[in-house]
Amino acid sequence: MICVWESRTGDNLNYLYSIAHFISALLLGLVGLQNNSFLEYGLSWLIASVILLVVVLVNVIILIYVERKELGRFMDRRGPMVVGPAGFFQNFADAFKFLVKEMILPESADPLGFNGTLVIIVASSLLIMAVVPQAPDFYFVNSDLGLLLAFAIFAIEPFAVVIAGWASNNKYSLLGGFRSTAQMMSYEVPLLITVISVAILAGSFNFMTIVNEQSSHVWYVLPLAIGFIVFLVSMVAEIERIPFDTPDAEAELVHGWMTEYPGIKFAFLQLTSYVRSLAGAAIMVLLFLGGWTGPLLPPLAWFYIKVYAVFTLFVWLRGSLPRVRIDQVLNIGWRSLLPLALLNILIAVLFKSVGWF
């Protein structure tokens, strides 16, 4: 695992750790501790974490605004346009509204499970972005098993969700937790099989290697078009976006497993759904769309152009399709996507065996 802040990492400058190292050296120099390598290491790591967190949260705020404006266009309306320039500050107004609401713990709820799962869900969602490189010169961790690590973190939420539903001591929350866990586990199988097909072509689970292999050959969306479709549908279901939002189902389950979460807690859960959407779009870009490769513009710019394009596809699906029933959700995962994922992996093996990749 490569995780350093030196001025050079391989042949590439890692701006995230270079900036963090510069700030930490400046701060320690001001207090006369510039020769303490242990403090410098810890402070650099902390500052890099804060920088990455800020980058993620800023993009999440923009994604929420983009989704509102795009849904407005899909529905032949203008979307937010009053609070701030072009309605951009509407997100902050909503956040303030959640912040001033009373914090309530349901009388019969289990405090440890109710609050502890909130911490797990928020932390695991943010942690995903730590293992997803955003450019060859901007990443937090470059691991040889980064792809597997990202999906291992994705797999934490189903367990936390069912505990949250149970700890709420509400039948709607419990049913929502069961639905969410069943849905996530159903779609993780074709999702991981599709990931394996990408690893077969690239010969690695390292995100950097996968992107470099695509730049040397072709974007994997072309040879693995079936896998791209399977991954897209599975990822939308994994992050519980419409049309696969049956765990929420406002008309049936009030708001699913999040029913009893009030105020700022509910806001944090909604925020993490967008963090996971950002992570899902980023992983799709890295696996199928060539990552940060592109002409003229800097790699980081190309990365986010593609991420926002994929997120627009998520929004397009939300604005076009109705909610799928829970039995249909499971049938799609097991009876449709799983066979297609297996077919996709056979195609990947065929391409690799004939030496095309």
Automatic annotation (TrEMBL):
Domain of life, source organism: Archaea
Topology in the membrane? Multi-pass membrane protein
Q: What is its EC number?
A: 1.6.5.11
What transmembrane ranges does the database entry give?
A: 15-33, 45-66, 112-133, 145-168, 189-211, 217-237, 274-294, 300-317, 329-351
One GO biological process from the UniProt record? Answer: aerobic respiration
- Any one GO cellular component localisation term in the record: membrane
Alphabetic keyword roster? Membrane, Oxidoreductase, Transmembrane, Transmembrane helix
Query: Record keywords: Protease included?
Result: no
**Its Gene Ontology molecular function terms?**
NADH dehydrogenase activity
Compartments in which it is found:
Membrane
InterPro entries membership: NADH_UbQ_OxRdtase_su1/FPO (IPR001694)
PANTHER family in the cross-refs: NADH DEHYDROGENASE SUBUNIT 1, NADH-UBIQUINONE OXIDOREDUCTASE CHAIN 1
Kindly provide the name given to this protein in its UniProt entry. NADH-quinone oxidoreductase subunit NuoH
| Native species | Candidatus Sysuiplasma superficiale
